[in-house]
Amino acid sequence: MTETTNRSILVVGGGISGLSAAIEAAEAGCQVYLVEKEAYLGGRVARMNKYFPKLCPPNCGLEINFRRIKNNPRVRFFTMAEVVKVSGSPGDFDVTIRVSPRYINEKCTACGKCEEAATSTFPNPFNYGIDLVKSVYLPADFCFPLRYVLNPTIIGTEEAEKIKAACPYNAVDLSMTPKEFDLKVSAIVWATGWRPYYAEKILYYGFGKNPDVITNVMMERYASPDGPTRGQIVRPSDGKPVEKVAFIQCAGSRDENHLPYCSGICCLASLKQATYVLDQNPEARVFIYYIDIRALGRYEDFFVKVQSDPRVTLIKGKAGEIQRLSSGKSVVQAEDQINGIITKEEFDLVVLATGMVPSTVDGELPVAVARDSNGFLLDSDGTGIIAAGCVKQPVDVATSVQDATAAALRALQFTVRR
Amino acid sequence: MEPKYVSREMRDYIIEMGAETITWCMQCGLCTALCPWRLVPGETSEKFNIRRMLRLGQMGMEGFEDETVLFACSTCGMCVKNCPRGVKIIDNVRAMRASIVGGGGVPANLRPILGSAHANGNPWAGPREKRTVWQEGLDVPRFSPDTEYFLFVCCHSCYDPRSTKIAKSIVKLLKASGISFGVIGEEESCCGESMRKLGDEELFQKLAQSNIELFNKKGVKKIITTSPHCYWVFTEEYPTLGGEWEVIHYTQLLVKLLEEGKLKFSKEISKRKIAYHDPCYLGRHSDIYDEPRNLLASIPGVELIELDRCRDLSLCCAGGGGRIWAEVPMGERFGELRIVDAAEKNAQMLTTACPYCMNMLTDACKSLNKQESLEITELSEVLAEALE
Ligand SMILES: Cc1cc2nc3c(=O)[nH]c(=O)nc-3n(C[C@H](O)[C@H](O)[C@H](O)COP(=O)(O)OP(=O)(O)OC[C@H]3O[C@@H](n4cnc5c(N)ncnc54)[C@H](O)[C@@H]3O)c2cc1C
Description:
The complex is a heterodimer of chains A (418) and B (388).
Chain A: E1 8-12, H1 16-27, E2 31-35, H2 58-71, E3 75-78, E4 81-89, E5 92-99, H3 113-117, E6 121-123, E7 132-134, E8 136-137, E9 149-150, H4 158-166, E10 179-185, E11 187-190, E12 194-196, E13 213-215, H5 216-223, E14 244-248, H6 266-280, E15 285-290, H7 299-307, E16 312-316, E17 322-324, E18 330-336, E19 341-347, E20 349-352, E21 356-358, E22 385-387, H8 397-413
Parallel strand pairs in A: 1-2, 1-11, 2-3, 11-22, 13-20, 14-15, 14-20, 15-16
Antiparallel strand pairs in A: 4-5, 5-10, 6-7, 8-9, 12-21, 17-18, 18-19
Chain B: H1 8-16, H2 30-34, H3 43-47, H4 50-59, H5 67-70, H6 78-82, H7 89-101, H8 111-120, E1 149-152, H9 155-159, H10 164-177, E2 181-182, H11 193-197, H12 201-218, E3 222-225, H13 228-236, E4 246-249, H14 250-259, E5 273-277, H15 290-297, E6 303-306, H16 334-344, E7 349-352, H17 355-367, E8 375-378, H18 379-385
Parallel strand pairs in B: 1-2, 1-3, 3-4, 5-6, 5-7, 7-8
Bound molecules: flavin-adenine dinucleotide.
The site of flavin-adenine dinucleotide has 37 residues of chain A, from α1, α5, α6 and α8.
């Protein structure tokens, strides 16, 4: 399949930034191709419980975007797809896309019969491996497109055949193979977002060894109604509800041994997650260990609100080693610099506020875009390749959307001959 | 509360003494929270807050000169290794100590130590001519211009009766391998690592100069050190003073000899379950973690036990930074935590690769009355036992 049009753009990454850029450009009359690596659109936002400052669930915001995409014939999106090659010049790029086999075609109604037939399980990538999924699974309850995916490692097994036989709609196609095709586009918006910092690298926090030390992105999954515990925030070690929770800010951030920059949103994410804990258990207590609380602009109000809750204790001091006691509690120690007292508190659960690492931090890119020393894409005027959202800088959703809109405009400029 | 005053002069003086990075600190407090003093109770633990001490230094404010505070740091490097701003905290501690020691403010308990190092070239009150007593009956080769390696034995292992066994074991191992090595002897002086950490800059310069002149005069090219402290100071601090040699810690050399087939540990030894304690100056300060483990693992029948805090996170024995001379009440010694950890893991032996660590762990084992069930050794002793 070869598309030829000189009024089209490619958007890489179907997170909130990519979706926004695609929709804005399409609604301005441009043909848009959206390429997403995962089996669903929405990116990291789809994996949140609620988002600050309004604390609404991400689905409402994403739903609107999905509807705009569905209703707009000018957007074509590809999931499980990646860009393999880009050649040409601004205004006239040739792009090769590769789509990996999903093994489930568009006849799928998400009835779930295949899943019942599946026997083997795998760590659930959507939930950061907290729980397991079957070898054929729906990426998430509200995923878009709402269609199953089959784990490629079971191809050729008896299990795969059983799954195929179980589908009443003939939606399982085990003969699918990777497909490549070319597109011609005028500009490319690169919006491949971020991943969480690998918390196990911060040795003294014991993430990966102490089961009750989790990361902020995992906390979003625990708190989500469609998460591994159906929204119950529990201690991973024994599944018991939590009474006392610690949030450790700058877990790896503002640290030249890890991430030298501030991700800008982790303070707000922890303040938000403190409300998850307290809403679920009004008797609970939350401690937040910080170097500085960074809640810029209007977000100051949100900070003040959470800060004034008597159940929330803020401790100014970066936390040291987290020790696990034989009782199963985790001890966090830090100096409270406000009064000079060295504190030691026992917790049920410790949440590491890890920062955002650009998805472009390592590996080759199929496009020639300059990166800064931390892997974020730099603005590259005139190249026809425009970065948007968290791949450019660590920001919140609102800023991502604004940045994506600006990126869409700049992409559109390449579709008109000057 | 009494008012406190900021003194630019004091601050500049401290910076001049070597605390160049003191102003990089953003006061996050990770150093205080990761400090091994947090793991024990007691007066020092309560008083010594490294973040606060550095803050006082940053502003040239009074308060850090209290001996319990100023001399508490064992220079384990846990804070330095993890500092988000790369502040060279140990250098800053050293500079702050130097600002007081340089003006004559040496704590009473340290006076004889520094005095002995001045007079005898070792801090252990041993006469210079007794430096080689441990060699009696061993036929240790003399270093000459055609000797390949100069074996530099730590003062502790020259004078401390328990520690001399380390020197003897290393000689036995080197002899068994057939490599060319030799000692210089009485003219050698203490490497000065701990003296410098205590803030006696003048003494350190004197010791270092004397060693550099001696080693160069004798034609030394390659040095084997028995202690990680000597190894560290020879590799990190001597080069800028004119002492540039190829320096190797004995564990590194033994691994090489083992790989080349020049050494073989074929004899089973009396203990099987052996825990290894990473010395700060070998591990965190010099990034040598695997060599000692590989050596242990090569002994038939040995089961290597890892302590809870190991490798980068290893817990200090409390013997660095001049703390080997500190009087610490029972119950406040870091070493005791190591003993408890090793005992809980049913180790029969706790071994290490540093004479100071061996010394501190031996004391801790005694104070907990665990000598019967847990033997404390230095790795060279274990390896020498495993030689055919
Ligand atoms: C713990 C936490 C909580 C947060 N909570 C909030 C909040 O409450 N409110 C708020 O405003 N912000 C919040 N944020 C920030 C928010 O997550 C980001 O602003 C948002 O995800 C940015 O969207 P994006 O599209 O730029 O990146 P992403 O969400 O990462 O989307 C990128 C997309 O690109 C895809 N992709 C990656 N590589 C490729 C490739 N090579 N080819 C094709 N596709 C690719 C990914 O699969 C993904 O779908 C939070 C962040 C954290 C860490």
